[in-house]
Amino acid sequence: MPQSNDPRHTPAAFQAGRSYSWHDLRRRAEARLGATEILEPIASLAVGAGSLTPNTHELLVHELQVHQLELEMQNDELRQIQEELEISRARYFDLFDLAPMGYLTLDEAGLVEEANLAAATLLGIPRAELVGRPLTRFILPEDQDAYYSCRNRLWSTGERQVGELRLRCDDGQSVWIRLETSLSRDARSAHTIWRATLSDITERKRSERDLLDTLRLRLMGEIAELTFWEWSPNTDEVHFPPEWHGQTGYDPAEAPKRLGEWAALLHPEDGEPILFQLTGFVDAPETPCEIQYRLRRKDGLYRWFVARLKAIQDARGQVERVLLVQQDVTARKQAEDRAIEVAQHDPLTGLPGRALLEHVANHMLASARRAGRQLAVLFFDLDRFKAINDAYGHPVGDRLLRAVAQRLLDTFRAEDLVARLGGDEFVVVLSHIRDADDAARAARNAIVALTPAYAIEGLELPCVASLGISLFPQDGDNIDCLIQRADLAMYHAKQFSPGHYQFVTEALNRKVCDETRLEARLREGLSGNEFRLVYQPVLDTRSGAVTGVEALLRWPQPDRSDVAPQNFLPVAEFSGLIHELGRWVFQEACRQHLAWRNSGLPPIRIAVNVSARQFHHQGFLGQLTAASEAAGIDPGALSLELSGAALMQDKEGSQRLLGELKQLRVGVALDDFGMGCSAIGELEQLPLERLEINRALVQRLGSTDSMPAVLKTIIGFGHALKLDITAVGVEAESDLEFFRAHRCNQVQGFFLGVPMSGERFVGWYREHAARMH
To answer: Does this UniProt record's set of keywords contain NAD (predicted)?
Structure first.
């Protein structure tokens, strides 16, 4: 008898889907038998053939009929189960897709295997672009540590983990999410998979921020006559309240949106120091910080402000915002300035003190430098003053000092500067001298004037002076150097014979001789065509295409060494040879540009470094245009790199020159930005094209915690002024990635291309272009 009714042969899906026994199934099949006889004809044929007995025939028909009905009933059950499974599966996918929160399934490597519609919508991308990518691709860099910490705890403990972090959406915005993760085992592959639930908590975070704002406003209410504004270091955005507009005169639509735009309103002397203080505070928010700055109002006037900084941190202790509680202290600063002006004068003699001496003397030096004049510094020391002061007391000594000061004032001209450093030391700065003889004559007159005895309280007090003389520009280019050398010369005069004067010492003279010999070699080098230009590529940060080159000056020697530019350029500056050297650089750069064009290269702009003295020389523009005309190229094939000090040395002259260069299509870049005073508040008035970040700042990118924020601020500032930004000194892939991520326009460095000769550059360019394609 067939054993097909054995439950061991029943499909597993059927056994699992229904609880009926084999006996129940047979009973139900037999109950249905009375309605069908479909197997009877087949059995009758078998009996007619003589292969079955009538009894066997009857039993066989019965069993076959029962078996057929059992199969039909089983098929009906299986179809019903399949329909129910399809309905259940559709309901599951509907719930999975239409759930209000995001669901992800990830493999062991963290790659997304499944994602529901809510997860894709949260990130603003199609689901197909989400599947197969690592989840870290969408997590903000600053929140990666929180993600990996949650993941490591999950895999080490196997227990459900919860964390909060931000995801970067396709439109560049970010959302806060609550991440819940758990592990499970895939029954089909036996692999461990982990599931993640993403809940949007952006509104909750915004509510927390509003709560902090309420606290801030309560604190502000406790402090009279203060206003506040906020800076978000992560986005560089700034937010100002209505009170700020009242203080500054700017309409809300005119208010800065980024920190760089705000920095552009600062006084030129305040911009860089304030930016460094702000970024430094982000690195050490627990340290109390107060900043002082001058901000230009809409009416063009500057107001003094003091701001105290308060860090607002997120749950992980990271600085999310910086609150600046600001007070207008202009009146107080004006009173302090008046007090400082009084304090800058020596209270005993009424002469300028050291601080005022340096301030005024620097202006005198700048004037002499622009006019090409000499200037002398005389350093006086009273030879017998200490003995007189010890013998007759301080009152007599003080009267003697006042008498000496008066004689000096009577001896020198009104345009000369007479100051007291302290004790019995006086300094006189002589302007408008023709040569060293003028300084010597003034020194002799002073000695003669100071030599007669001083009648004080019935005493006749002899007090002669020894003095040293330093000359500008021969002995130094700044007041500190000139005073130091004049002091040294005075010491030698006193040792030689009190009451006399002496110019700088022999040691200093030897240095001058060395510089004179170097000057002679410079002249020989220029006449012998010994100088060379090498070219370092400048690349577009995103595409890697060559946007130009920087021309760098080299002076090779017969022994195959080079004289370093920092050694010969200062000599070229003060000797005036910088103008002839600059003319040669323009000519050679134009010649090379034409040679590259003739070699089949596209137009490649060449950047040339220009010193302040070159830039403000009356023949500067003529040199540039003559060189381009001689080569038959457009002047716009060149661009210039200038320091902020050069541009600020003569503001009106700089404006005029920059305007003329713009008409010639010659671009101008601000060189080495970030290390010195770059007159931030006034740069927006200059028609610049590009800003170069100082090499030293770029090379500190990986070693200083605050440097990324500093560089981002500089980039933001440059973009606020609509300038292209070039990072100089990029020496690693990580540096390149940083500047690419923060929208720096161009990069330059040995990592990307070393300085090379013009001939070698042709081959390098073609190889680089081939790699790009």
So the answer is: no
pTM: 0.44
Q: What is the DSSP string of 500-558?
A: -EEES-HHHHHHHHHHHHHHHHHHHHHHTT--EEEEEEEEETTT--EEEEEEEEE-B-T
Distance CA 195, CA 531 (A): 68
**pLDDT per residue as tens digits for the range 161-177:** 999 999 998 888 899 99
CA 417 and chain centroid, separation: 43
Please check whether residues 127 and 269 belong to one and the same domain: no
Residues 5, 26 contacting (CB under 8 angstroms): yes
Reference 728, options 673, 769, 655, 651; nearest CA is 673
Tokens in use for 27? Answer: 């009973």
**Amino acid at residue number 427:** V
One-character DSSP codes across 607-650: EEE--HHHHTSTTHHHHHHHHHHHHT--GGGEEEEEEHHHHHHT
Per the structure, the complete domain to which residue 254 belongs is given by 226-335
Closest C-alpha among 208, 209, 195, 135 to residue 167: 135
Domain boundary among the residues 471, 504, 537 is at 504
In order of 355, 357, 423, 663, the CA distances from 378 in angstroms are 17, 13, 16, 47
Half-sphere exposure of 346 (CA within 13 A, CB side): 22
Residues 592 and 647 in one domain: yes
Cβ-contact 1, 30 below 8 angstroms: no
Instruction: Please identify, among 504, 533, 549, the residue that sits at the C-terminal boundary of a domain.
Output: 504
d(CA 436, CA 223): 62
Q: In this predicted structure, what is the pLDDT of residue 706?
A: 84
CA 93/CA 542 separation, integer angstroms: 42
Rounded Cα gap, residues 422 and 469, in angstroms: 18
Reference 138, options 122, 151, 149; nearest CA is: 122
Which residues of the chain are modeled with pLDDT < 50? 1-20, 35-43, 45-47, 221-222, 224, 508, 677
What count of Cα atoms within 13 Å lies in the side-chain half-sphere of residue 527? 6
User: Is the residue at 213 inside a domain?
Assistant: no
Longest CA–CA separation in the chain, Å:
171
Please give the structure tokens belonging to residue 333. Answer: 């600063």
Q: At what angle do helices 578-598 and 565-575 cross, to 10 degrees?
A: 120
Could you give the C-alpha distances from 96 to 107, 119, 182, 198, 722, in angstroms and in order? 18, 10, 17, 13, 48
Q: What is the CATH number of the domain that holds 268?
A: 3.30.450.20
In this prediction, residue 15 carries a pLDDT of 41
- What is the sign of the dihedral through the CA atoms of 232, 236, 237 and 240? positive
The crossing angle, in degrees rounded to 10, of helices 394-411 and 385-392 is 140
Burial category of 477 from C-beta neighbours within 10 Å (exposed 0-12, middle 13-18, buried 19 and up) = middle
Q: How many domains does the chain have?
A: 5
